[in-house]
Amino acid sequence: MSARQRGLALAEVLVAMALSLLVALAAASLLHVSNGDFLHNGANTRLDDSGRFAMAIITQALRQAGYPGEPGAAAAGVAPLALEGRDNAGVATDADGLGVPLPAINRSDALAIRYAPTAIAGAEGGGAMLNCAGFPSAAGEWAWSIFYLAQASDGVAELRCKYKGAHAWGSDAVIRGVDAFHVVYGIDTDTPRDNIPNLYLTASDIDARDAALPAAEKAMRPSWRRVVSVRVALLLHGERASRPGSLLGSYRLLPGADPAARIDEVSLPAAMQRRARRMFAATVALRNL
Q: Nearest 5°: phi and psi at 81?
């Protein structure tokens, strides 16, 4: 074989190798895109299921608030609130009710709901109503459903449900992978009341309104007793690398009602950025006023 023939053969081999590399790179690129789409679609499906489930639990608990009607007088002469909340606060599992505020995850809120189950023959524990964990509560005493965010043992933030058991307080996870949980409250400011919210306030705003009242009125917490609806919002995230692209998002959970209800991905740790995210919100009218 002449030198020219050997050169041509070598060129053909190099061209074939280059073409093979191009085909391999194209196949790898298609596989990468396909895998990214698979992760993104799977994450969105899981987010949709988790969000719908969480909102169903929260809205059901809110519709029980204050049942069977305006709460009766407590031993101290002040009727307990049907619901109350805290801004930018976590909740201790073993504390009574909301307890002392703990550091919050991404400035998330806590929401506490009270109701009084009625006795039903044959019902476990005598009560026909279930708390946020799905357990019946004993008739004739106040039951609780408290929602807040906390970290699981692996560091993943989850929406938790705190409830009062027969002997102690308990807390169970509702869903995992929650960035933020925020609540605002619809206040009926009309006199006489028409049970239609005139404005939505945060828990801190409601506490401030009550704090400005004379001492005789302050103890009754009248602003909380004028809450006629509740608006809740959740932001959930998917697995790592579950959202293609390089842009960082900004999410407003309750636009116009709570400026603090906002998550900017640029402020999150790198591992939490560029994930599939989904917001869920609902407004619930309170039934038992």
A: -75, 145
The identity of residue 66, as a single letter, is: G
HEC readout, 56-121? HHHHHHHHHCCCCCCCCCCCCCCCCCCEEEECCCECCCCCCCCCCCECCCCCCCEEEEEECCCECC
Q: Which is it for the CA torsion 239, 33, 252, 187, positive or negative?
A: negative
Both tokens of residue 264?
């900017």
DSSP 166: S
The tokens describing 163, both together, are 């409830």
Domain segments of the chain as ranges: 37-285
CA neighbours closer than 13 Å in the CB half-sphere of residue 14? 6
φ, ψ of residue 123 to 5 degrees: the values are -75, 140
Residues recorded for the chain: 289
- Per-residue model confidence as pLDDT tens digits over 267-277: 999 889 989 99
Q: What is the pLDDT of residues 4-35, one digit of tens each?
A: 666 666 666 677 777 777 777 776 666 555 55
